[in-house]
Write a structure and sequence with these properties.
By secondary structure, the chain is mostly helical. It has one domain. The chain has 11 helices and no strands. Helix 3 packs antiparallel against helix 9 and helix 8 packs antiparallel against helix 9. It is globular. It starts with a helix and ends with a helix.
Amino acid sequence: MDLVALLKAVILGIVQGLTEFLPISSTAHLLLGADLLGYEDPNNVFVIMIQLGSILAVMWLYRQRIFDVIAGLPTKPEARRFALMLFLAFLPAVGIGFFAADYVKTVLQESVIVIAWALLIGGILMLLLERFAPKPTVTDAAQTPIPRAIAVGFMQCIAMIPGVSRSGATIYGGLMLGLDRRAAAEFSFFLAMPTMIAAFVYDFLQIKDHITTDRAAEIAVGFVFAFLSALVVVKPFLDFVTRVGFAPFAWYRIGLGALLLALVGLGIV
């Protein structure tokens, strides 16, 4: 067993879990982290498999809400409305993702410049939204009007560009459409559940033949640490953005994007 590879898997699992639901792009951090650590991940098998750990963590945290919705579908209009809202918001990612997935993986994810500019521009937009976002009219993510939910679903598609951040795109969309900070973040979590599960299933079918027994230990370790770190970060993140806002994440994105562009300009990256 390669202990160095396992340690790298631990680090990348923690990175995945910490960044998946923060508006700073988990994809960018995983790609950059793997490069920095010199971690070889043919066909992105490791990255694809450990992402399920993050989504299972948020599903565990919201397990009571999920159970209530499923149990209430036959009898409760509010449960059916919630399920319909998420389904309709999820559909744009299915349609656009089906046609764009190969281009994203083979072209965009290979470009550090794309990631850097996406981080930088996303951070600037986040600062502008913090200052000029419309007055919130929705304080409960579950009560998001369906047309606004669908619009957030289309915003999520922008996150196919590495560096944009899936949570960031959906949170920006929610803020622009009148959700308050906590509601926008929670709606992002709810929408992540069907989106990330569908993406995982699609990707798994593409790479299942490349999963080897000698990688199983690394995948298991990364999965567990992605689950645990996501479990730790979600609730404090909600409390933090409710009190402070998204500006610290915006400045982090701007700083990281600028640093990457400088390193590319110097020929270091």
